[in-house]
Design goal:
The chain has 23 helices and no strands. It is an all-alpha fold. Helix 6 packs antiparallel against helix 21 and helix 16 packs antiparallel against helix 20. The N terminus and C terminus are likely disordered. It is found in: Membrane.
Length: about 525
């Protein structure tokens, strides 16, 4: 036997090992790598001295430092109060673009025919080219205006664009020849940058905690403009015949029967110009804090569109395609006879459906979306709304199938579900704008919004026409019982759902990942 080796007892190590071996949590010290290291040292105490003053647990201060317990995610910050004065002013201004675009729709065909330069058979082509001229010109000049907004400031560019919209809308009502109409619509497209600038101002007047609420107002204002514009155009066109007591003796309205709705819309746009001139503020964080200059910094287009921005813009393109095509398809479906695949609704019934849809959209966007965005996060909300899109596209088919068999109660119930779910799925358009602005670099947000508006303009100019042609082809040839266009829309909805999973992590997820 060798010499007897003295062993020095370490009572701290004993307590740690005993408690952990029996699963006790009174010391809240799990058998971590530090304790295992201490246990290994205990078996080799015979070969050297042990410093009992050295703590076994070196990280943290006191008991439980190595096991803080289950991590509790930090609470989300409270939403920053929106500058409601600026948001409401921008919302009123946002109405100006869709209202000046859509006021022409009810009477443009009659106006084209009244020139005597186009036959009845050619009216549709001529009217279509008028809108195409506006959209294509807008696409060409949008990026230039966006860069100008970066260089000169948002407010002067917005005022200039609004003034151009007001002048072009007024002049269109006085046009008597086709070349005049084309020239005026091109002029309107040149100054059609106000939507992109307003979108940028919305983003710069909020932060990540309240952006969903701000863009709910943005989307709602656009919807209001799209509804009010055709209403004004249809109600006030040809006032001499419609309101003979008021305008029967008016030489102006007798010679120019379509100028009154254009003048009313121009007056509205002029009012927004005055309000913006007096009360619109340039965002403070765009000022140069070092030099005190208010001239904003610019970022190159390549820097503004660096990854993941291209991916986000593709997702935005899919979203606006689904939105614009669905908006063009619904009135056609409601008007088409039941035996061909529609619901055979009257114009007044179609207007009622549009009004109910607008009401539900207002409820979803203004009341529910900010709460859902805060609870779920923008990306998850976008995914959920995208998942509802293909489901929504099937409901018009179900409504027609019930109507064909005489079950009109079930048909109207399916239509009601379409309105409810469709209004909720419409939040994809607002959510994708929030995600787009969250992804954009700080110095390139105007450029990004300019590109986004170019995509929206291109989609608006070709998408509704293509899907309407597909619908007409499917109905006239009874392809898939007249449901061909809805099958195409369902496929687009599935593509949108797949694309929603490719959205870059939004702000909430980045914060959680960092922590």
């Amino acid at each position: 036997m060798g010499p007897k080796i003295p062993v020095r007892w370490n009572w701290r190590l004993t307590m740690v090992l005993v408690c952990n071996c029996h699963g006790y949590s009174c010391l809240n010290l799990p058998l971590t790598s530090q304790v295992r290291e201490a246990s290994t040292k205990a078996t080799t105490m015979s070969t050297g001295d042990v410093d009992e003053t050295r703590p076994l647990v070196t990280d943290g201060a006191g008991y439980g430092a190595t096991d803080p317990g289950p991590s509790v995610p930090p609470p989300k910050p409270e939403p920053t109060p929106l500058p409601m004065g600026q948001i409401l002013l921008l919302s009123l201004t946002r109405v100006s673009e869709p209202i000046s675009f859509s006021v022409l729709l009810p009477f443009v065909n009659q106006m084209v025919l009244s020139t005597g330069e186009v036959t009845v058979e050619e009216v549709g082509y001529a009217a279509g080219w008028l809108e195409t001229c506006f959209s294509l010109t807008q696409i060409v000049f949008l990026m230039l205006w966006s860069r100008a907004a970066d260089a000169w400031g948002r407010k002067p560019v917005l005022l200039c664009a609004l003034a151009g919209a007001m002048i072009s809308c007024t002049l269109f009502g006085f046009a008597k020849h086709m070349w005049q109409m084309y020239a005026i619509r091109v002029l309107g497209g040149v100054f059609g940058a106000n939507a992109a600038v307003i979108r940028t101002l919305f983003a710069e007047n909020c932060d990540r905690t309240n952006m969903a609420t701000a863009f709910a107002y943005f989307s709602f204002a656009a919807s209001v403009g799209g509804l009010v514009g055709p209403t004004i155009g249809g109600a006030l066109a040809n006032p001499v015949e419609r309101f003979p007591r008021l305008f029967g003796q008016s030489k102006l309205f007798s010679e120019h029967p379509f100028v009154l709705p254009c003048m009313v819309v121009s007056a509205y746009v002029g009012g927004t110009i005055l309000l913006c001139l007096l009360y619109l503020r340039e965002p403070h964080h765009r000022e140069n804090s070092k030099g005190g200059s208010s001239k904003p910094s610019t970022m190159s287009i390549r820097e503004s569109l660096k990854p993941p921005m291209p991916r986000m813009l593709v997702i935005y393109a899919v979203t606006v395609t689904a939105s614009f095509c669905q908006g063009a398809l619904v009135p056609l479906h409601l008007f088409t006879p039941i035996n061909l695949g529609g619901l055979n609704e009257t114009p007044s019934q179609i207007a009622l459906v549009s009004a109910i849809s607008a009401l539900f959209s207002a409820i979803w966007m203004l009341l529910l979306m900010p709460k859902l965005d805060r609870r779920l996060g923008t990306k998850r909300l976008f995914i959920y709304c995208s998942a509802a899109t293909p489901v929504m596209m099937v409901l018009p088919v179900i409504a027609n199938a019930f109507a064909r068999t005489g079950h009109f109660g079930m048909s109207y119930f399916a239509l009601f579900l379409f309105i409810c779910i469709g209004s909720g799925a419409g939040m994809t358009f607002t959510s994708v704008q929030v995600l787009l602005n969250s992804t954009a670099p700080a110095g390139g947000i105007s450029t990004v919004n300019g590109v986004a508006q170019m995509i929206a303009g291109a989609t608006k100019s070709v998408g509704p026409g293509i899907i309407s042609s597909i619908y007409a082809f499917g109905v006239s040839n009874q392809i898939l019982a007249g449901y061909l266009a809805w099958v195409v829309m369902t496929v687009i909805g599935v593509i949108l759902l797949a694309a929603s999973f490719r959205v870059p992590a939004d702000y909430d997820e980045k914060v959680d990942a960092a922590k």
